[in-house]
Every structure is written in C-alpha cells, then in structure tokens.
Design goal:
heterodimer, A: about 400 residues, mainly alpha, ABC transporter involved in vitamin B12 uptake, BtuC, two-stranded antiparallel sheet, about 0% strand, globular, B: about 325 residues, alpha/beta, Rossmann fold, 2 domains, six-stranded mixed beta sheet, four-stranded antiparallel beta sheet, 12 helices, disordered N terminus, AAA+_ATPase (chain B), ATP-binding (chain B)
Chain lengths: ~400, ~325
C-alpha cells in the first residue's frame, strides 16, 4: 500500500506542477492555431522560448517584471508576424515547414556561443539559471514562509488512513471524472449555465478529493512551491476563460470557417489572411505566456524547449481533443500524469535493486515511460481519433 | 414568400418583376456578342486567361443587365467557370495590366481581392459546393452576414458590442432557412447534408450578405427534379426582388425557362448573345454547342413513340449511307 501511495504521490506532484500548467497554456495557444483555425504550427516551442528569453533577459537586465512580461509577449508577436506574412497567403503546408525551421533557428541562436554579446545575454546552451530572474516573481508572494500540505485535512485524519476510505474515495473520483467527460461530450442533458455549473462543480470536487487522498506538501514560496503552483493554475484558468470568450464569439466562428474552407470564406467577403494572422498572433501570445511560466521554476535552457516540447504540446492537444475548450488542459494533465505514472511504476517495480525482478537502470525507466506513452497514444489515435472531449460526428466528414 | 432581402433596386429595378417589361427591355438590345445593355451592372473588357499555351478565356467585351436573369452557357471547357473565377477575384487574368478592366456597379474591380469583390455586393457560389462541413447549418448561414462587429478581434471578447447584431443576423438566417426549407436542419453539421441541400445552403448563405448580384455556378447540377423546380422558383423570386442573377447551366430547359438573356461561350470567347428563345437557333450556337437534336429530350417517354423512333432510325440510316458513300 505504501508503494501505491508513493506512486500516487509522484503523479499528484506532476499534476499540480507549474510546468504542467505552463504546457497547458501553450497548448491552449496551439489549440487556437491548429484546433480552431487549422494552422499547422510545428514551432510552438519557439513561441515559448522567445517568451521565456524576453522575460528572463529583461529581468536580468534590470527591467521591472511587468515590462519583462510585455517584452516576452512582444517578441512572440513579432515572431508571429514574421512567420505569417510570407506563409499565410500560401497553402497550409508552407506554414508547417517554416514554423519548424524557425523554431530550430531560435533554439540554435539561443545555444550558440559565436557572438559575444548574445552569449552574454542567453548564456548559450547552459541557459540562464532561474535564480537570476526568479526573484521579482517570488517576492510578490504573500504566502509567507514555511510549507503547506494540500489538503491539510486528508485521508490520514479519517479512520487512521484505512485502505477502505481510500478505495471509496478513488471510486468517487473516477465516477466524477466519467460524469465530467459525459457532460463535456454532451451525453448528459444539461445546457447553458447548469452545464457549466455541473462541470465546474465536478472538477472542484474531484480535485479536492484527489488531494484529500494524495496530500502533497509544498514550500509556500520557494521555487516550485505553492506560490508558483497557485499562480500557474490561475493563469491556466484565465486562459481558458479567454479561449471560451474568443471562440464563442463571431470571431471564433470565422476562425472555424477558415479551417473548413478558405475559398468559401473569401466568397463570403471575409479577409482570410487577416483572420489567420490574428489567430497566429493570439495563439503565439499564449505560447509565450506558457514559456514564461515554464521557465520560472527551472532555467531558460534552449534545448529543453525544442521540437520535443512542440510534439508534447500536439500530443496533449490531440489527447484532450482539438477545438475543445477543456481539451488542452485535460490533455496536458493526462499526458504528464500518465508519464509520471509509468515512470513511478517502473521505478518501483522494474528498477534494479528496488524489486527482485528489476532489470532497468533509472535512466531506462524514463525511456521506458516514453515507449509506453507512445504506444498508448497510438492506441488512442486508432480507437479515439477525436480525442477525449472531441465530437465523433466531426470525423465523419472529410475536409 | 417572405421579404427577407432588401431589394437593391437600380434605376430599372422593381418594375422588372413584370415579364412583359423585361421582354420589352431586352428587345432593345442587339443580339450580338458584346452588345451594350440599357443599364449594365457588370461591364467586362479585354479579359483573357491563359494556362500555358491554352487560352481558357478571351472575352473582348461583355455587359450584364441589371435586374434580370442572365444565363451563361457553353460546352464543357468553354471557360465559363474560369470566367466566373476571374471576375470574382479567385483568379487573375493574364491580361491584367494590359487592358483588362471590369467594373461592377460603377466600381473597378481590376485589382480587388475575392473577399472585397464579395463585400462590394457580387457574391458567388461554387460548382462543387463549399459548405463548411464541421460547422452547423446555422453557423454556415451566420458567417454569410457582412460587416459583423463581433468578427473584429478587438470587440470579440465583449458581448455587448455584438449581441444585438448577432440576434438580428440569427433571425435573418432563420427566415432564409425557412424559405429554403432547411429550417429543420439548422443544428446539423453542414457536412451531413445531401448534395442538393448543400446547393440550397450555399445559395441561402450567399443571400445573407444582401448581394446586388448573385453568381451561381451550375446551381442545378446533381439536384433532383423536384428540388430543381424549387431552386428555379427561388432564383426567379430573387430577380423579382430586384437582384441581378448570372448563372452557368447546362440544362437547356432550365435556361429557356427562367433566363431573360443568354450569353453563349465557346473556346473562351463569347460567340452569341440573345433572348433565350432566339439564341438557340443562332447558327453559331448550334455549331458550337447544341447540335441538331438539342430540342429532343432524350429522357422524355412521350417522344419515344414508334413514329419518332422510326424517324430517328431513318435519319441514322441516311447518315450512315452518306458516310459510306463518302468513304467509297
């Protein structure tokens, strides 16, 4: 039972990790690009990296944090314009090629050591250590010192932490998640405010119950502490609200129109180029915001924000369901928590020394996790191509 | 039939709902290629389009009369759709900058993009329908409305800016859907509609923008006879409301039935113009397109009586002997 509780603890730590939240924000941006507008942007990591560089370098140069954030966003804006002007008038494939190569260019420039003044700013492949730009953000914290356990009232307080209580708790959590997915996919006859209310309620109860069953202790303010977690997930919440507002507007309808058929939109008098450019910029800004959040508890290291991160973003998006509001958040959570699960299980049961049948080194367990995640994703794409929240009806029409 | 579209009447609009008035108006036009019209809404000059060595379109001059139904006919490959693409901005003429000029309602369109052509009041549909498949019929319709405040990014987040407008657009869309008998389908994905329903949807969507002129590219292709009847009714009622209609069609019965003026294209050129009943007997048209038996409906059972069959057989036999004699 202790093993299981440890595995669950490892998963919970990833689930509330600010970096998971950061990826979720970037995936929301990618959802605007790919899910709603049909722009095949394979360089979301470059938007993240630019946001991170703009933010971190500005602060190390003594710019106040508020303006540092604006500088990070401005860099992403310029990047989107530079990519968009030559490619958005062409067919979609060109954007894909240009974005992936531009992302590599940004990464290589970041890790290059050829130009003295540039290396002084970016610190090359080593990257800028978080301690150099984290202070203004940490200083904003009003959580004080010490550490907090989430939740302070948890399973250990009920019946001495008995197994039965925990089992019942998990059954309820799973039931809530199933209910949530059913509501999100429109299988439960709820509409409007009742639907939103039911979903928010189910999310809150399920999250609290999960924390009740798997309490996590965090420092209040230090790097990767409670303050980081709280801010990161608040930004995710605000981003989702923003996405909701944008996609439910006539502007969002125009985005989907462009995804379906550009010529039809032209024949209806819509300026397709402008709509695509707006989408590219807005999605890129979300990417930059995610990038800033991503490096706050870590370092700005160009190689940690390369192609792999872009593909993680796509995986999370397709997992959750493209062109859905909650898909990006759900997808990021499931992807990272699922990976943490496989790593924790293989470290507990399959690693040399930790169990009698162990045959893997610690590094191999990490790689093994990727293999399992990869296979799981292949199965998902085969059996549920529209993602967890997607509408299966949409797949019936070839576009 | 509800009045959903504001009649955009020109100097002669409105009165043209009367067939006699239309006949009188069109009888003043000389039936020859490039004839001048009394009140042209669209004027095209020297527009050519070449694909490599092939000249797909080479139109010297063409005018389209306001407020009437003009049909554009011609054999396959005559350049009708290319011509449509050129004047609606979906393609650029090879002669651009070398005298190509066309104007719609007094406004030159030489350098205009497809979207601003549509905004200026000339809306087209496509031969292969372009419905936005993964959006509902209603959303398809709502996209057709022009100048929506909510489509600007700055205002999209603030519902009060566009909520009222959205409601009006929705009402208008519902009226049009009712008129085109798509009301029941409004919550379905457009991709789930049948081919004919998509044609209807595309026409209704085009009407959302209150166009001055609507250009239909083969609206009847692949549509069953009952639906064809209702589509014809719709097109005629558009004309009666003062809209100008230009359409490409292959079915001669349809063309004769509803069009006030017919323009015939062959090999990229306008070879003839005229009223529907006279242009069909024009030798140039018969040569280019119709063939001697264009009047015979091969699907009409009444014509398949013994006498007709015998006559046709005799004709075939006569032709064969002629050919054999020619060989010999």
């Amino acid at each position: 039972m202790d093993d299981i509780q440890n595995i669950l603890g490892a998963m919970m730590r990833v689930a509330i990790d600010p970096q998971t939240a950061a990826v979720a924000i970037a995936v929301i941006g990618l959802n605007i690009h790919f899910g709603y507008t049909g722009l095949l942007n394979i360089g979301q990591s470059a938007f993240m990296l630019l946001g991170a560089y703009g933010f971190a370098i500005s602060i190390t140069q003594g710019v106040p944090m508020f303006f540092a954030i604006l500088i990070g966003l401005a860099l992403a804006l310029v990047f989107a314009l530079v990519l968009g002007v030559p490619t958005l008038k062409l067919r979609g494939d060109y954007l894909a090629i240009v974005t992936i190569s531009a992302a590599e260019i940004i990464r290589y420039v970041g890790r290059s050591v050829g130009i003295g003044w540039l290396t002084d700013l970016t610190k090359g492949a080593q990257g800028i250590p978080g301690s150099q730009y984290r202070a203004p953000f940490t200083n904003l914290s009003f959580f004080g010192d010490g550490s907090t356990t989430l939740l302070p009232f948890n399973y250990t307080d009920v019946a001495g932490g008995s197994v039965v209580v925990r089992l019942i708790g998990w059954v309820v959590v799973i039931a809530l998640i199933v209910l949530l997915v059913r509501i999100a996919r429109g299988k439960v006859a709820l509409t409007g405010a009742a639907r939103t209310g039911a979903m928010v309620g189910a999310v809150v109860v399920a999250a609290l119950l999960a924390l009740f069953l798997v309490p996590v202790t965090q420092r209040n303010t230090g790097a990767n502490g409670l303050w980081f977690t709280a801010v990161a997930w608040t930004v995710v919440g605000l981003s989702v609200l923003l996405l909701l507002g944008l996609t439910r507007s006539p502007w969002g309808r125009a985005l989907r129109g462009v995804r379906e058929d550009e010529d039809a939109m032209r024949s209806l008098g819509k300026n397709v180029f402008a709509i695509k450019m707006q989408a590219l910029v807005i999605g890129g800004l979300f990417g930059a915001l995610g990038g800033m959040m991503y490096v706050l508890p870590a370092t700005v290291q160009p190689d940690s924000m390369g192609r792999t991160l872009t593909f993680f973003c796509y995986t999370a998006l397709l997992l959750g369901g493209a062109a859905t509001i909650w898909g990006p958040v759900l997808g990021s959570l499931i992807f990272y928590v699922g990976r943490a699960f496989v790593i924790a299980v293989s470290q507990t049961y399959l690693q040399d020394g930790s169990s009698p049948i162990g045959f893997m080194s610690n590094q191999q367990t990490q790689q093994f996790a990727f293999i399992v995640v990869g296979v799981a994703l292949m199965l998902l794409v085969i059996f549920r191509p529209q993602g967890i929240l997607g509408d299966k009806r949409e797949l019936r029409f070839n576009v | 039939m509800s009045e959903t579209t504001t009649p955009t009447t020109g100097s002669t609009g409105g009165a043209l709902a009367d067939p006699a008035e239309r006949r009188r108006l069109m009888s003043t036009v000389t039936p020859e290629p490039g004839a001048a019209k009394a009140d042209p809404i669209l004027k095209v000059d020297k527009i050519t389009r070449q694909f490599g060595g092939i000249t797909a379109v080479d139109v010297e001059h063409l005018e389209v009369q306001r407020g009437v139904i003009t049909a554009l006919i011609g054999p396959n490959g005559a350049g009708k759709t290319t011509f449509f693409n050129l004047i609606t901005g979906f393609d650029k003429p090879t002669s651009a900058g070398h005298g190509a000029h066309w104007e719609f309602d007094g406004r030159a369109l030489n350098r205009t993009s497809a979207s601003s052509v549509a905004r200026s009041g000339m809306v087209r549909t496509f031969q292969l329908t372009k419905s936005l498949s993964r959006m509902t019929v209603m959303e398809n319709m709502m996209l057709g409305a022009q100048g929506q405040a909510g489509e600007s990014l700055a205002k999209a987040l603030f519902r009060p800016f566009w909520a009222g407008e959205e409601k009006q657009i929705e009402e208008k869309a519902l009226e049009l859907l009712a008129r085109f008998k798509l009301h029941e389908k409004r919550a379905d994905f457009a991709g789930s509609l049948s081919g004919g329903q998509r044609k209807l949807l595309e026409m209704a969507r085009a009407l959302m923008s209150d166009p001055k002129m609507i250009m239909l590219d083969e609206p009847m292709a692949g549509v069953n006879p009952a639906l064809t009847q209702s589509l014809l009714g719709h097109i005629q009622s558009l004309r009666d409301e003062g809209m100008t209609v230009l359409f490409v069609e292959h079915d001669m019965h349809v063309v004769r039935h509803i069009s006030d003026w017919v323009v015939v294209m062959a090999e990229g050129r306008v070879v003839a113009e005229g009223a529907a009943d006279t242009v069909m007997s024009n030798p140039a048209v018969i040569d280019a397109y119709l063939g001697a038996h264009h009047d015979t409906d091969l699907g009409d059972d009444d014509l398949l009586d013994d006498a007709t069959m015998e006559r046709l057989e005799q004709e075939v036999a006569a032709e064969e002997t002629e050919r054999e004699e020619g060989k010999a």
